[in-house]
UniProtKB/TrEMBL annotation:
InterPro entries: CarboxyPept-like_regulatory, Peptidase_M14, Peptidase_M14_domain
PROSITE patterns, A to Z: PEPTIDASE_M14 (PS52035)
GO BP annotation list: peptide metabolic process; protein processing
Domain of life: Eukaryota
Organism: Asarcornis scutulata
Peptidase M14 domain location: 1-262
Record-linked SUPFAM superfamilies: Carboxypeptidase regulatory domain-like (SSF49464), Zn-dependent exopeptidases (SSF53187)
Protein name from the UniProt record: AEBP1 protein
GO MF annotation: an example: zinc ion binding
């Protein structure tokens, strides 16, 4: 925070561009009570673990709704996507009850995410030196036999690891941080506590490394538009004062580079033919089974790797619009706007609802109407 403010005032063009073109939200601590407990106990003997939980005893790392398990269960029952969505999955009702086992910090973060159309996020942690990306939850073995999965060039053949539709994009984002870090990719030294788990790249999928359900990363991906990753800044949770400057230098370029990635992909407005914005319109990218929605002003952002994409915009009561959008290697999102024309499907649904969602019987000229047909005609008129 100090760096951004000072460099902005000093006229640093990179920081000025970042601050003026990006809405940046910074949370100093997600768990301030736990942090105070750990700080008071000290870190020499591993007492930082005391700060893993809140004062009420909740583990914030696993306190968010487990939407991944709900999605996979629906996929097993063949309910996706016609009856169960694969994106913007609603929060279970029981999770919203006042007596639910949910930390106040978790509720606050969820409410904050509902109010802001976040695009990219990172939760900063310590005790390791790597970047972890979703899914964090491990998919249970399928009850139905599946076709053999072809081996990937960079992933082990692990049936319990389920990749997100944005797997390649998450890897790009994770590498953008790890590669700019001064020591994160020096994996010849091994990991912080065990052998290197990142295949010498400084990045790992959460489910492959440390599987757990109900994480902020999985919740953010399945409930909002935001792509969230976990960044483990260094091996020591509480570096000594003499080490802080070097830790800052290790991570400074990575933090800037990561924030700049929010401007990679496509962005634009979805409006009607009169120029009025359309909120909650769905942006569909061909080949990626994960959609985003427009904000209240009809604007949207979609982080994508370089390439050419077939993109469509859809909204209730409007005809869909499709166009080809190209994403380039240089930082700077491609403008991709959509203008939707009104559809008559809304009126058709209204008429069918008046008829009890049953087909409207065609009246044949010269044939007398039945009492029921006469009554329905009178009701419609």
């Amino acid at each position: 925070m100090q760096f951004l403010c000072k460099e902005y005032q000093d006229g640093n063009p990179r920081v000025r561009s970042l601050v003026t073109e990006t809405r940046i939200h910074l949370v100093p601590s997600l768990n301030p009570d736990g942090y105070e407990l750990a700080r008071e106990a000290g870190s020499e003997l591993g007492n930082w673990a005391l700060g893993h939980w809140t004062e009420e005893g909740y583990d914030l790392f696993e306190n968010f709704p487990d939407l991944a398990s709900r999605l996979w269960a629906a996929e097993e029952r063949k309910l996706v996507p016609h009856r169960f969505p694969s994106h913007h999955i609603p929060i279970p009702q029981h999770y919203l009850e006042e007596d639910a086992t949910v930390a106040v910090e978790t509720r606050a973060v969820m409410a904050w995410m509902e109010k802001n159309p976040f695009v990219l996020g990172a939760n900063l942690q310590g005790g390791e030196k790597l970047v972890s990306y979703p899914f964090d939850a491990a998919r249970p073995p399928s009850e139905t036999p599946a076709a053999p999965r072809p081996p990937d060039d960079y992933e082990d053949d692990n049936p319990e690891v389920h990749e997100t539709p944005d797997h390649a994009i998450f890897r790009w984002l994770a590498i953008s941080y790890a590669s700019a870090h001064l020591t994160m990719t020096e994996t010849f030294r091994g990991g912080c506590h065990t052998q290197d788990v990142t295949d010498s790249m400084g990045i790992v999928q959460g489910a492959k490394w440390r599987p757990r359900a109900g994480t902020l990363n999985d919740f953010s991906y399945l409930h909002t538009n935001c792509l969230e990753l976990s960044v483990y800044l260094g091996c020591d949770k509480f570096p000594h004062e003499s080490e802080l400057q070097q830790e800052w230098e290790n991570n400074k370029e990575s933090l800037l580079t990561f924030m700049e990635q929010v401007h990679r992909g496509i962005k634009g407005l979805v409006t009607d033919q009169q120029g009025e914005p359309i909120a909650n319109a769905t942006i569909v990218v061909g080949g990626i089974k994960h959609n985003v929605k427009t904000a209240s002003g009809g604007d949207y952002w979609r982080i994508l790797n370089p390439g050419e994409y077939r993109v469509s915009a859809r909204a209730e009561g409007y005809n869909p619009s499709v166009k080809t959008c190209s994403v380039f290697y240089d930082i700077g999102a491609t403008q991709c706007n959509f203008v939707l024309s009104r559809s008559n499907w809304k009126r058709i649904r209204e008429i069918m609802a008046m008829n009890g969602n049953r087909p409207i019987r065609r009246i044949v000229p010269g044939r007398p109407m039945t009492p029921r047909e006469r009554l329905r005609l009178r009701q419609r008129l």
